[in-house]
Amino acid sequence: MSDNGLSIKSYVTRNGRVTKAQQRAFNALGGKYCIPFSDSPLDFYTVFNNYNPVTIEIGFGMGSATAEIAAAHPQKNYIGVEVFRAGIGRLLWEIENRGLANVRIIEHDAVPVLEKMIPGGSLEAAHIFFPDPWPKTKHHKRRLVKRPFTNLLASKLMDGGYIYMVSDCDDYCNFALSELSETQNLMNNHEKFAAGQDWRPVTKFEKKGLARGSAIKELFFHKTESPDKPD
Questions:
Q1: Which domain holds residue 63?
Q2: Which of 72, 95, 179, 219 has its Cβ near the most Cβ atoms within 10 Å?
Q3: Per the structure, how many domains does the chain have?
């Protein structure tokens, strides 16, 4: 663990099943839509061949929400960051099947991607939908939405950009609300939790949670030019 705590991974490597179709999609389309990890900042114009605003989605799972949002907003660009090959293969299939020119994928840990590849003040938005809640107290250090990671993420947003988190874990939502509220230059325009955004599709994972009676909570913070909050 480094002094700033950012070296702690918010995920564990799992031997999840990758279907033959997902592997075929990865083999055939990865070179077209995946961006290799690099120590150099990205030039978004070079990546997308336009100056449209860019959203990063961290941990897109199977990518269904990513694809639907991108399809509904062709005037915006999306970079999905994921470490699990099954989800990457599925999203690659969605990109090709839907003809999405505005989605790219980085197969890597989100922390070094943000540190090395995303220029400061360059993102319109960051989406974090249903991150691993790490419910046991001893594992809370692995939660993604906490400082100093949220400070790093906020530094990559342009003024007026936003962080949008959704979770069905009540404890994590309260934890994240506190961490984001203390993050430099972020403002919550709601008293606590935000209303659901009608442009965010409901995923199969979310439907299962709702069927179990889980409460879905949403956090929506904007970047402002207000004085920095104390660390």
A1: 23-223
A2: 95
A3: 1
* pLDDT at residue 3 greater than cutoff 50: no
Residue 16 predicted with pLDDT over 80: no
Which residue is catalytic, options 132, 159, 170, 228?
132
pLDDT at 231 over 90: no
210 against 52, higher pLDDT: 52
Cα separation, 214 vs 217, in Å, equals 10
Whether 2 is covered by a domain: the verdict is no
Active site residue 3: no
Q: Which residues contact 168 (CB under 8 A, 6 or more apart)?
A: 130, 206, 209, 214, 215, 216, 217
User: Which H or E element spans position 206?
Assistant: helix 204-211
The dihedral through the CA atoms of 146, 177, 143, 156 has a sign that is negative
Q: State residue 14's pLDDT score.
A: 55
Contact 178, 143 (CB under 8 A): no
